[in-house]
Write a structure and sequence with these properties.
The structure holds 4 protein chains of 4 kinds.
Chain A lengths: L1 H18 L9 H18 L18 H7 L5 H7 L17 H27 L6 H19 L3 H19 L5 H34 L8 H7 L5 H19 L7 H8 L2 H28 L3 H23 L5 H22 L2 H31 L10 H4 L1 H14 L6 H15 L3 H26 L16 H19 L3 H15 L3
Chain B lengths: L1 H14 L2 H4 L7 H22 L28 H24 L9 H20 L3 H19 L6 H32 L14 H19 L8 H7 L2 H22 L8 H23 L4 H29 L2 H36 L10 H4 L1 H14 L6 H15 L13 H24 L6 H4 L6 H19 L2 H14 L8 H4 L2 H29 L22 H4 L1 H6 L1 H4 L2 E3 L14 E3 L3 H20 L8 H17 L2
Antiparallel strand pairs in B: 1-2
Helix pairs in contact in B: 1-3, 1-5, 3-4, 4-5, 4-10, 4-13, 4-19, 4-20, 5-6, 5-10, 6-7, 6-10, 7-8, 7-9, 8-10, 9-10, 9-12, 10-12, 10-13, 11-12, 11-17, 12-13, 12-16, 12-17, 13-15, 13-16, 13-19, 13-20, 15-17, 15-19, 16-19
Chain C lengths: L1 H20 L3 H22 L5 H29 L11 H22 L10 H18 L3 H19 L8 H29 L13
Classes of the chains: A mainly alpha, B mainly alpha, C mainly alpha, D mainly alpha.
Chain lengths: 518, 656, 213, 305
């Protein structure tokens, strides 16, 4: 039962970390655990039993957006017809554990990203020897464990428990630096996320209750919910969806529930920020996807789409407002996360081919954010500051991190030839296909504003000459600091130029699964 | 076969800057190697393109194994594309040679390698833009071109003005890219595939077709620098290293034209209003461009604005061709498109020549301000001769190349006067073009005279000297090309006819040679050349006998005419500046002169780009302020954030 | 049976209003504790056959919500030496009124919300809604950290009450998980509050607004 | 054979006639002034004298200064070979030669102005500035005239359209258009050859002159070449004008050569008359005059649309 093993890896590693006495060697438990985690994930994802083939999900070498898009009629419904027989094909339904196709995508992202962050963290903690890092290591692993549980469970209630667990386990991570600002960030993070998550619990209850109302036996297991969805009471279902959307949307950072996000991302250590905006909020998005799936199956997808599109555009607008003239690099990246969560929500709401784009965007956005946050971490360490005008001429000061930061900015704003370009293009294509021309226009317009706002800051930070203050300490790009950055960035570039067939398989599988109406 | 070679060429160009990265930051070897690679690649590419009608050039499509997000790597080349490839190869190669003397690694250890890396990237990407037969692939190449272009413009990113101009370019190019993304996705929606360049959309209703045209026109117009989308162009060209400016002006603007040329035929026979829009945009750009050019003091800004003018002329020709398509006049098509294509090629010959000359001046006198130059003719005779020739060429004077292409466009416009369905209203363009021509002549008289004629106005100018062979060589080559094309245009008619045939959606396309007899141009040009050569010979043998030493210019009785009293460029165009003050919209600081014995007063006047200075920047500032004021939404109070959550729950619950 | 249930629910609602009205934070915490105990009594009342698990649940709930968590908060209160909630963003009288109105509306809608054949009366859903509103009121209008935590507590209680409707559906594992999360959450929060005290020399969260824009 | 004669005749006339026109103009002006004036052939004598003279060249100048007069002679000569002097087509005629014609004149202007600025004298700079500025307004006028002619004749070739212009019936709108075109062409002629009211060829206030001041530093053969070139320009444009107004008919060769010569003389006399009767315009009004010329021919074009 490899999924069980996967879930157990982190607690065990955390326990080990708690036991290791040496402050210097303890961090190495992170990469070790990360690698094991990744191997297990690889086994699960590639293992024959886990991934069932979906007919029409391209598996040959010549997959391409072009061909796939050509294969699809204008609405995504054909997904349904194609994969109807297979909707539960790839999912293990034990009582508690199960891995649905969208979950696979997020799991892959989280695991790979954590490897990068783990190695980075080793170097990072080495620079902060004065702090005791036991709590940090334990919580970081627990955090990963909780996320894995969210992804791998199939019970709405357990998902909620695990999601709240991620909040609690990551709070000490934000607080690592023990500065006034980090306290404030932690406080807001805890309060807002807990409240939001509480709403999500209520939402789950509503969904279960929607069964009772029509005299069905209530349950929180996704499979049962999907089976009963068409027969459930619409009003309670929709109310439940709203609460789930707002609840997990808070965690995901959809505007206007995003308020905790810039603070937390801005103040926490860079590897934590990377995990947050790379993996955590994607996991929250996964929860939104699951909720939307239930509604979609219940035949109420249009309602869900309206709300998702609304919140999506709203998030992009908020991000646009706060990215223009943003002086703090990490807050800027945080708002960019808000923007991209908005894009994901939009893609999910549009449906059809856009779903594929959203699934791809989960990956591309996650890895780009990872490389960006890690490179900003290096800039922060080099300059002792993460705000302009203290940070200038980063490309000269840190040739690797600075350049990756600059290119990563281009990537995240959807410039070819990087990954996000492809995913955003597919989402835009889906939007046009669905005939939402105004939405597409708004989408592009907001992208432009965001590009301008973000570009101003990034170019000021990277170009020009290095101020004297920036030269004081002797931090340079090393293996542990530069390596993970480069790795993430190369993945982003790869996703822009060549997407390995297995990955395409995952994405198509997920998109098909979500379009299914049993 | 050919395609494979071209791909190798493109990759060679893209990588030409890479070896340099591994050499020491002051060693010239990397630079030489890079230039060598670039030149070799360009030579091969040039050969393939020029002789591709000997070797068959089938549109080849590549299917590499594995999943590529952009689908098949579909590359193809038709004769129109081939025509656009020529300047890319030529200027990229010559520019990298020029760089050896102009931007030597040991003088620019900080940014030399970055420059050459992006130079290669941009050149190769432009080749790929032309080869691309799949829109995602096209977008990738396009954006690589645009972004490496940005890093080229901001080579000296230490200087604030460079960063500022680069910033404007950055916004403009991204706006263009977004338009193009929208354009291609729409095209995909209507044509059903990412294949370029489709004519499946022929049957579309007017609405979507208009959307496609406008998106394409704006997206590509930004790159081409059509007014009012030109805002990035002047400052960008002025602040870039000169050979970079020549690559931009001589080649990258063509990519915009290329795109527009492809867009207008997506629908088979275009609607009439497309042609009208193009012609209007063209004439507007030509007129405003030359007016603004005339007013510049910075000679690189002047050249940049004259690029806008030439792009305008090219677009006018293209618009005529489009009208020819929609109104079914083969002659208009042949003359309009032929003139446009030829003028584009010519512009890619004399504009780089002029920019390289400008680089030579900066190399010698180290300033971009014409008013502080003068008397360079005696000090840098080689650059003077080359710039003079370039100026004559760009002022469309026979026997040089600029004249031939403008003649074709004029002739095409004259042909709109008669024929079955004449459209005389088009002909009103002619007098405007004539005025533009006269103003172009004035502009370049101003340029050459103020920089080279008379006596040096400053010590810097007095100490100027000719640059070395690495810089002069490419310029001489370009000058020779200008004369050759000007005197023997017949050499190009074959290629031109092929290009036109590739563009026209008709089964049989009109041939230029059938409409206009290019030998007449040769017939007039050759005597002129011989005459000029004779004069040169005569001067060479006659002048030294008669020149009396120490005889100054006749000063009309005024005993001591100082050097700064020479007629300056500004005074040369003072009348025009006054007449066109509304268009120029300059910023003037008039001196306060009062009383019988007024105190010392000073007068300052500069001519920023009106649209950028008075429209674009204020608007952006305003938007920025609005967004700034919206930031209170995130005031830092957790209670407020809670309220947001509560409110959004209620709102969403109420939405039905 | 239903009678007792309803009686308890009414009591719970009254506690809400009191929580909105009082400015003395000790009293507030005690009220929350009392509410926790009352809620703890509910599950055994609801389920048909009172087995060990429901009893365990009840005990756990009473233990955590009634004793442990309140004590943690009292401790936080002690080392902060704050007695009263001063100048809330909305005064006490208005917040009571708001709470009352919300409860009234909930009760008015009870007919629509409750299922036709509900085993446990009309009162459950309105109660939980009124508790949610109370929680949000405390969270949005009070500035002292502890008060906001109690608001969060009331919010959770409201959800707990709603949970009564589908005790059969929710596995006890989940119930326990929820309780555990709540406990750990409050625990971590009280630690943070402790640090806030140390860093800002006050519990006033309105000072925590340096991160903006 | 006939064409050969015509061509050689044309070349000869083109080469020899120009100074005579200047002579006629001067004579007319003298007659108006009540003087006897210089002999008709005075300009020829002057040119010969200048050819024999030595030249003084400012040490500021470069080869451009020497080349300019000769380039302008060559360019004007070539332009002249495109305008039919008689009833025959000009030696050089092809579709589109009208554009070549205009730009050859521009070539001459380019070099003359450059040479003027080459001396570094502010006075000559002033002249150059005025020359190029006014050209910006005379060019459109010229092209509008060409528009009218092309529209009427239906061919964009100089010889063809000039010869066919004569087939227009008197009194038709076409003839009206022709008249308007002729008027604006006459203004262009005055401007291009820098006569009153645009410029005063024989004032000696440098501040007020255009062409004269540009050649201020030329001496000897160079000055001669300049004078010769400008007089040839006068001849060409006069011939152009005559073709627009006179009904020439290729059938009767002999008569037409006569008419042509008479016409040239007439034009010269008219110019002389204008110069003696009118005052020179203020410089700032010259553009207005040229714009008026544009309007004339533009209106003519409107008439025949």
């Amino acid at each position: 039962m490899d999924v069980l093993a996967l879930i157990l890896v982190c607690p065990v590693a955390a326990a080990l970390a708690a036991l290791i006495p040496s402050n210097r060697w303890r961090p190495w438990i992170l990469p070790a655990a990360a690698v094991v985690h990744l191997i297990l994930v690889a086994v699960i994802l590639l293992g024959g039993g886990a991934t069932a083939k979906v007919p029409g999900a391209p598996t040959t070498g010549s997959i391409s957006v072009a061909t796939t898009m050509a294969a699809l009629p204008h609405t995504g419904q054909s997904f349904a017809q194609k994969a109807a027989a297979h909707h539960s094909g790839g999912i293990i339904f034990s009582d508690w554990l199960g891995l649905d196709p969208p979950g696979r995508v997020v799991l892959l992202l989280a695991s790979v990203l954590f490897v990068a962050c783990a190695f980075y963290t080793v170097g990072y903690l080495r620079d902060h020897m004065d702090h005791l890092n036991r709590l940090f290591c334990v919580c970081f692993l627990a955090f990963l464990g909780a996320m894995t549980l969210v992804i791998c469970t199939n019970n709405l209630g357990l998902m909620w428990v695990a999601m709240e667990a991620t909040t609690l386990s990551s709070a000490p991570l934000i607080y690592f630096k023990h500065t006034k600002k980090s306290i404030e960030a932690t406080w807001k993070y805890l309060l807002l996320c807990s409240v939001g998550i509480a709403l999500a619990l209520l939402g789950s209850f509503f969904v279960a209750y929607a069964a009772i109302v029509h005299g069905l036996t209530p349950s929180l297991r996704i499979a049962d919910l999907l089976r009963q969805a068409p027969a459930m009471d619409k009003r309670w279902l929709e109310a439940g969806f709203v609460l789930l959307l707002v609840g997990y949307g808070t965690k995901m950072g959809l505007a206007p529930m995003h308020s905790w996000l810039p603070d937390a991302h801005g103040e926490s250590p860079s590897p934590v920020s990377a995990m947050f905006s790379g993996a955590l909020i994607s996991t929250a998005f996964l929860m939104v996807v699951r909720s939307q799936h239930i509604l979609h199956v219940a035949g109420d997808g249009a309602y869900a789409s309206r709300l998702l599109i609304l919140l999506g555009l709203l998030s992009m607008a908020f991000a646009a407002i706060f990215m223009v003239g943003q002086k703090d690099l990490k807050r800027m990246l945080a708002y960019s996360s808000v923007e991209h969560m908005g894009i994901l929500a939009l893609g999910l709401g549009i449906g059809g081919i856009a779903l594929l784009g959203a699934m791809l965007h989960v990956l591309t956005n996650g890895f780009t954010k990872g490389s960006l946050f890690l490179s900003v971490g290096n800039i922060d360490r080099a300059y002792g500051s993460k705000t302009i005008p203290e940070v200038r001429g980063a490309v000269r000061r840190l040739p690797l991190s600075g350049t990756v930061f600059l290119l990563g900015f281009l990537a995240i704003t959807g410039s070819p030839p990087f990954g996000p370009f492809i995913s955003e293009l597919i989402i835009l294509y889906g939007t046009f296909m669905a005939g939402h021309f105004l939405i597409a226009a708004a989408f592009l317009g907001l992208l432009l504003i965001i590009f301008i706002g973000m570009g101003r800051t990034v170019l000021t930070a990277t170009q020009g000459s290095v101020p004297a203050a920036g030269r004081r300490n002797h931090f340079r790009d090393g293996i542990l600091s530069g390596g993970p950055v480069l790795a993430c960035f190369l993945i982003v570039l790869l996703l822009g130029l060549y997407i390995p067939p297995p990955v395409w398989g995952l994405l198509h599988h997920a998109a098909h699964y979500l379009e299914v109406k049993p | 076969m050919n395609m494979l070679m071209l791909i190798i060429v493109a990759l060679g160009m893209i990588c030409s800057g890479v070896p340099g990265l591994f050499f020491h930051r002051r060693s010239a070897a990397g630079q030489r190697l890079g230039a060598a690679i670039n030149v070799a690649a360009a030579a091969v590419g040039m050969a393939v393109v020029l002789f591709h009608d000997i070797l068959p050039m089938a549109a080849e499509v590549w299917h590499p194994a594995g999943a590529l997000p952009m689908g098949k790597v579909a590359l193809s080349l038709d004769d129109l594309g081939a025509w656009f490839l020529l300047p890319i190869f030529l200027i990229s190669a010559l520019g990298s040679i020029y760089g050896l003397g102009y931007w030597p690694q040991r003088k620019h250890p900080a940014d030399g390698r970055k420059l050459r890396l992006c130079w290669g990237l941009m050149s190769g990407a432009m080749v790929l833009v032309v080869l691309a037969a799949n829109s995602i692939w096209f977008l990738m190449a396009w954006e690589i071109m645009a972004l490496s272009g940005y890093f080229l413009l901001t080579t000296e990113d230490g200087k604030p003005e460079v960063r500022q101009s680069g910033w404007v370019y950055f916004i403009a190019t991204h706006l263009a890219t977004l338009c193009l993304i929208a354009f291609f996705v729409l095209l995909r929606v209507y044509s059903g595939s990412f294949r370029l360049w489709p004519t499946e959309v022929a049957g579309l209703p007017a609405g979507p077709l208009a959307a496609l045209f406008l998106l394409g026109l704006i997206g590509f117009g930004f790159k081409a620098g059509l007014v009012p989308l030109h805002v990035w162009l002047p400052a960008g060209h002025a602040n870039a290293p000169s050979h970079v400016s020549s690559l931009f002006s001589g080649v990258m603007l063509n990519m915009g034209i290329y795109g527009i040329m492809r867009v207008v035929v997506i629908a088979g026979r275009p609607p009439i209003w497309w042609g009208v829009v193009l012609i209007s945009a063209g004439v507007l750009s030509a007129f405003l461009g030359i007016t603004w050019a005339l007013a510049q003091r910075d000679f690189k800004r002047l050249l940049a604005y004259s690029s806008i003018e030439n792009i305008g002329i090219i677009t006018t020709g293209l618009g005529l061709a489009v009208l020819g398509l929609s109104m079914n006049h083969p002659i208009w098509v042949a003359l309009g498109l032929g003139g446009a294509l030829l003028h584009m090629l010519n512009h890619s010959l004399f504009k780089p020549l002029l920019f390289m000359g400008a680089g030579g001046i900066m190399h010698g006198a180290n300033t971009r301000d014409m008013e502080s130059l003068g008397g360079l003719a005696a000090r840098m005779p080689a650059v003077f001769r080359l710039m003079l020739l370039g100026s004559a060429a760009i002022a469309a004077l026979p026997p040089l190349n600029g004249f031939v292409s403008e003649l074709l466009i004029y002739l095409g416009l004259f042909y709109t006067l008669h024929g079955s369905t004449a459209a005389p209203w088009i002909a009103w363009v002619i007098p405007v073009l004539a005025m533009v021509g006269a103003m172009a002549l004035m502009t370049f008289v101003k340029l050459t005279a103020t920089c080279f004629a008379g006596q040096p106005r400053t010590a810097a100018a007095a100490g100027a000297h000719d640059p070395d062979a690495a810089m002069l060589g490419p310029m001489m080559l370009l000058a020779a090309a200008c004369v050759l094309v000007g005197a023997f245009p017949v050499l190009l008619t074959g290629l031109l006819d092929h290009a036109i045939a590739a563009w026209v959606p008709w089964p049989q396309s009109p041939s230029l040679a059938g409409i206009f007899n290019f030998w007449w141009i040769t017939a007039v040009a050759v005597p002129l050349l011989i005459g000029t050569a004779g004069i040169a010979w005569w001067i060479h043998h006659w002048r030294r006998g008669v020149r009396e030493k120490g005889v100054g210019t006749w000063d009309c009785g005024y005993a001591a005419p100082g050097r700064r009293m020479q007629y300056s460029g500004s005074s040369l165009m003072q009348t025009m500046a006054w007449m066109f003050r509304r268009i120029l919209w300059r910023r003037e600081k008039l001196p306060e002169v009062r009383g019988i014995f007024p105190p010392a007063a000073d007068y300052a006047c500069n001519t920023p780009d009106p649209l950028l200075d008075r429209v674009a920047e204020p608007v952006l500032k305003k938007i920025g302020n609005i967004l700034e004021s919206a930031r209170i939404l995130q005031s830092g109070a957790a209670q407020l954030y809670m309220l947001y959550i509560l409110l959004i729950v209620l709102i969403l619950l109420l939405i039905k | 049976m239903i009678m007792i249930l309803n009686a308890i629910l009414v009591l719970v609602i009254l506690i809400n209003l009191f929580a909105l009205g009082t400015s003395r934070m000790k009293a507030l915490i005690h009220a929350a504790a009392l509410q926790g105990v009352l809620l703890g009594l509910l599950p055994p009342l609801v389920v048909k056959d009172v087995g060990t698990l429901p009893l365990l649940m009840a005990v756990m709930t009473i233990l955590l919500k009634g004793i442990v968590i309140p004590n943690m908060l009292l401790k936080a209160l002690r080392d902060a030496q704050v007695k009263r909630e001063v100048e809330p963003l909305i005064g006490f009288m208005p917040s009571i009124l708001l709470g009352a109105v919300a409860t009234a509306v909930a009760l008015a809608l009870a007919g629509h919300l409750a299922p036709p054949h509900s085993p446990l009366g009309l009162l459950v859903i309105p109660t939980s809604i009124s508790m949610l509103c109370t929680g949000f009121l405390l969270l949005t209008t009070r500035v002292k950290a502890v008060t906001q935590v109690i608001g969060f507590l009331l919010l959770e209680n409201g959800i707990f009450v709603f949970g009564l409707l589908l005790l059969s559906a929710i596995p006890y594992l989940v119930e326990l998980g929820v309780l555990l999360d709540l406990f750990v959450g409050i625990f971590v929060i009280s630690i943070i509050i402790h640090h806030i005290n140390r860093a800002f020399a006050s519990q006033d969260t309105s000072r925590l607004s340096s991160l903006k824009g | 054979m006939k064409t050969l004669i015509a061509i050689s005749l044309q070349v000869v006339l083109l080469a020899l006639l120009p100074p005579l026109l200047l002579g006629i103009i001067n004579k007319t002006k003298a007659w108006f002034a009540g003087r006897r004036g210089p002999p008709l052939l005075q300009v020829y004598y002057d040119l010969l004298r200048l050819m024999k003279k030595n030249v003084v060249i400012s040490s500021t100048t470069t080869w451009v200064f020497l080349a300019a007069p000769l380039v302008s002679v060559i360019s004007v000569l070539l332009a002249g070979l495109m305008v039919p002097l008689g009833p025959m087509a000009a030696p050089i005629h092809f579709t589109g030669d009208l554009i070549m014609f205009a730009y050859l004149l521009a070539l001459g202007r380019f070099f003359t102005t450059l040479a003027a600025l080459d001396t570094g004298s502010s006075f000559e700079g002033m002249g150059a500035a005025r020359e190029v500025t006014f050209a910006c307004f005379s060019e459109p006028a010229l092209f509008l005239v060409l528009l009218v002619l092309v529209k009427l004749s239906g061919t964009p070739s100089l010889s063809a359209m000039l010869l066919s212009a004569s087939h227009v019936r008197i009194g038709s709108t076409a003839s009206a258009a022709l008249v308007l075109a002729a008027v604006s062409l006459f203004v262009v002629l005055l401007a291009e050859t820098s006569r009153i009211p645009v410029d005063d060829p024989n004032t000696h206030l440098e501040l007020t002159m255009i062409h004269e001041v540009m050649v201020l530093d030329n001496s000897g053969p160079l000055l001669g070449a300049q004078i010769y070139a400008s007089s040839m320009k006068l001849l060409i444009l006069a011939a152009f004008l005559l073709h627009v107004v006179l009904p020439l008919n290729p059938a009767l060769v002999g008569r037409d050569w006569g008419i042509m010569l008479a016409g040239l003389v007439a034009v010269a006399v008219i110019i002389g008359a204008v110069e003696s009767l009118m005052a020179r315009l203020q410089l700032r009004f010259v553009p207005t005059l040229l714009v008026a010329a544009c309007l004339f021919s533009g209106f003519g074009f409107l008439l025949i649309l």
